[in-house]
Amino acid sequence: MRIKLDQTAELLKQADDILVLSHKSPDGDTLGSASALCTALQRMGKRVSFACSDPIVPKYQNLFNAFVPEHFTPKYIVAVDIADIVLLGKETEQYQNSIDLAIDHHVSHKEYAHMSFLDSCAASTTQMVYDILCVMGVAVDKQIANCLYTGLCTDTGCFRYSNTTAKALRTAARLMDAGADAAEINRVMFDTKSHARIKAERMALESITFHDKDRFAMMEITKDMMEQSGATESDIDGLAALPRQIEGVLIAATLRERKDGGYKVSLRATPPYDASVICAEFGGGGHKGAAGCSFHEEKDAVKQKLIQAVSGYFLAQGI
Amino acid sequence: MRIKLDQTAELLKQADDILVLSHKSPDGDTLGSASALCTALQRMGKRVSFACSDPIVPKYQNLFNAFVPEHFTPKYIVAVDIADIVLLGKETEQYQNSIDLAIDHHVSHKEYAHMSFLDSCAASTTQMVYDILCVMGVAVDKQIANCLYTGLCTDTGCFRYSNTTAKALRTAARLMDAGADAAEINRVMFDTKSHARIKAERMALESITFHDKDRFAMMEITKDMMEQSGATESDIDGLAALPRQIEGVLIAATLRERKDGGYKVSLRATPPYDASVICAEFGGGGHKGAAGCSFHEEKDAVKQKLIQAVSGYFLAQGI
I need a labelling partner for B50 at 20 to 30 A (CA). Which of A104, A131, A296, B6 fits? Predict the structure, then answer.
């Protein structure tokens, strides 16, 4: 059942022995939402625990500084920023049928909880958690503000992406008023690249080729590059956005070589062009700005197919 | 004489035949401030003109869409975002002794105007212009909001830098309410790299060397790289920030080869370390986070001097 802000705040007020869950491969929004909620609920005198299928990478560990997880049999289970129950992952899939409350901002949310507080207009789930804490009368201090700001800035690319609303900026302002270390969080989240990332980025940049009057760019991330650079998935996060940023490029593809052979293609389009239309030709899909599809062919064959598809797309667009 | 917001608004209301000046090598803040002011004052029925010593690069040309410059002998001259009179540049230096009003947010502002409205806490000069327009009772429409947002987002690195205040975020929120195309402006300002930039960036990445347990990184931008990539000054804007972003790097230097020989060094430091202390050893200076100095030696000699200075600095810091 879908519920609203006031009901969500009321349910949380009444609950105790609460387990908060983040999605697997946790990002700043799921962890910021969980840590803010855990810290706030524990301060209210409730017993609170947290679980996530994957470990928390170092840059997010500070979020849980003021929270001491407790051990108990949960009576109330809350999932934050989890769009689909399959995103719980192995370690927490035992809770898949017993989630009492889901708080989420994903437009693709597939309802799985007894109660769901959903707002696809929210820039981040932490923005929703901020509103919940305000309605609950919780004092948002520096620690909680840092958690909430982390989710807000990571999900909006530091207020750069199109999901940034005036409300998101106002929430960020209120979090700064509450003491959020915005500049330091931004530095850690956006201004720090691993050595492996720098190496992988350099190799990926070298692989870029241009086609169709430089309007289509292709970049490769091969198994060999990953090995040579020592990069992990987290290291190459966001790299696929790079070729689309090049001046004049309208469509950009990043070909990621799969461990089991074949390629996963991530396609980006500059507005008003539509990457999902091209991916649909190959059985893939996504959004206008970013879409994906998969291939089992060799690299050169994949490239040829993409060049043809993009060329056909441009022709159909009359450009 | 220093004046306040209300007086500034009153002076502009009374003025006519107004010339607005931007600084040379104009950026988003000086142009956003000037275009917003020109557009607003012209709508109030005043005769308005604009001048700048250097041409406006394409990405900023939209700012002046709603403004038609007029020809007249100026009776009131306003300088926006100009910290020092020498920044007028050749084409407008004729006005250096006759500036009636300066509106600026630089902490280093050297007063040169008859009246100065200064606020070093403002994240951008456009943030100050927004307040002025509000006090003047000007309706901030989409066009003016776009001008003001451009200055705010470019001067704060899209709300990432430490000069971003809660007020800056609130002003951005109000500009979005007024219709600013934030996502599109962010895309043009931050998500577009020239082909030459990509080439220069790749070469610069390849030049990075690490020293002192990888805590000190050095990057080169040589004349040869500039030639090979075809990059202009505007193309390599911000590139010097790159080596400091690498994980574990506390001090980073970018060695820029000068046309007339020698090197200009841009030094960056991760808080709490201080780049200006190291640059001071070589007769340079700047801020804690970013400082600079110059050398007339060959590259290898410059590198050795820097390695020694940084090593000494780390030792003095007890790290």
Answer: B6
